[in-house]
Amino acid sequence: MLRLCGQQGTARMRVSETVLKFRKGEMIYAQGDPATDWFEVVSGTVRTCHLYSDGHRQLTGFFYTSDVFGVETPYYQSSAEAVTAVTLRRCMRSFGQADQLGEVAAPLGILQSALSNAQACIFLLGRRTATERVAAFLLATARRLGVRGSIRLPMSRSDIADHLGLTIHTVSRTLSELSRRGFIALDGPQSITLCSPEALRQLAEGGDDIIESRLPSPSASLMRPGNAALVYGAQS
Amino acid sequence: MLRLCGQQGTARMRVSETVLKFRKGEMIYAQGDPATDWFEVVSGTVRTCHLYSDGHRQLTGFFYTSDVFGVETPYYQSSAEAVTAVTLRRCMRSFGQADQLGEVAAPLGILQSALSNAQACIFLLGRRTATERVAAFLLATARRLGVRGSIRLPMSRSDIADHLGLTIHTVSRTLSELSRRGFIALDGPQSITLCSPEALRQLAEGGDDIIESRLPSPSASLMRPGNAALVYGAQS
DNA sequence: CGACAGGTTGAGTGAGCTCAAGTCGGGTGG
DNA sequence: CCACCCGACTTGAGCTCACTCAACCTGTCG
Question: Helix, strand, coil: what percent of chain A each, to 5?
């Protein structure tokens, strides 16, 4: 526990009135700061992260291009930090008179997507086993990044662990196990190929009874054809 | 797993255009229904509850008098059910033109509190041990119900368990243990007195090293004086 | 009175945590 | 260029906490 949370310096390099850049690991705002404005990601990846008083942390979301974060009021409940180098657009908080200003994008929609995002986080944490959480996380991330082929995960194992409520050891072991079973391929720690999204979907929904029966033949499509589970958390 | 979720009948007893009553256990809306309106609790307790395809459930919140639920769009991510007999006020969803109608209370504030609520749920689930989760839940519930003396918990052990991501056994054992340690008193399953909120706060934040040292003398105030943890999730 | 639902408690098991090496790649300095 | 370090990741061994299985208690209802 008590992992360091990136360097603190907060050396914001102002580019213009509303465009900001942060280096990898820099803090964008701190938990408990008055929530004066919210942010849209132009490029890069951001994490929001709640610290408990015992030092352990809970990542409440990852945010990619065009996602918005920092909408809670009146204080930020989580800090925000740059996972990679990021470029942000800062939006002044003017909810009351939003529509008169015109330049502020619809706050209602933004709050809605923040709520979806929080719920997606709950649904990840609500899963019981490490395998289910990791599988669900991979699927959600792949969908968000709009991937065909391999995903480039911008965040570390430690970030994933603190997002899923696991340790880095368990995350690493679980990924290795998924790779061993042939569901994913690990091409380096950050680059992951989802070989069998159907099987992952099964795992994510509690079906850990997918034993060997399907290793050589990737006929995953015939397992539970009408998987009409709700698609929640469309965060964009 | 696969617990029953109250009877389904949805026998809404319409009282007027917008006031509805439900009996204990009745479903108010189902997960996946189009989210046509949201609700305010007039009296009673409501739970919102997300079902996974393996049948296990995650309660995403409890709602008491004056709380609002069902604000997500375009589909309800969780079903809503009456924990006790409840009276609700139904509010038509008219977010786009909300303020013109006048009668619809500020949707922005409502979305904000829904977001707080979801975050509070995340912060509960983010806690690691059963003791921490149960202690945090008791404190949050006591605060919400504005209690001095004993809380009357409207929900069952099963509801608490599915809210905290534990089993009813673990919840029950943990409560017994807290009672044995003198931090709470169990006056029947639903009626709980918080004898030592300070100690519970310690437990909730990871300090399970409160051993005996404080059983007879309730001098809790000298343990970690500046406990300036953020007060999150003010859901009202 | 029996049936049943909700709750409590015990015994044993196992998934995930802790502790501890060990690997790998990139940077830095001699 | 190589030695060294450091951070991120992986992997093994053992332990522990919460789950599973099972019994039992209590109050309510027909």
Answer: 30, 25, 45
- A118 and B123 in contact by Cβ < 8 A? no
Minimum-distance CB partner of A165 among B126, B205, B229 = B126
- Partner-chain residue, chosen from A122, A227, A230, that has the shortest CB–CB distance to B118: A122
How near does any CA of chain B get to the CA of A15, in Å?
A: 31
List residues, Cβ < 7 Å, touching strand C: A 1, 128-131, 165-167, 169-170; B 156-158, 168-169, 171-173, 175-176, 186, 189-190
Cα–Cα distance between B128 and A153 in angstroms, integer? 25
Of A133, A138, A161, residue with least CA distance to A150 = A138
pTM for the model stands at 0.84
Per-residue pLDDT of chain B (236 residues; tens, 9 = 90+): 434 344 443 444 444 569 999 999 999 999 999 999 999 999 999 999 999 999 999 999 999 999 999 999 899 999 999 999 999 999 887 654 444 444 444 588 899 999 999 999 999 999 999 999 999 999 999 999 987 788 999 999 999 999 999 999 999 999 999 999 999 999 999 999 999 999 999 999 877 766 544 433 333 333 333 233 333 333 33
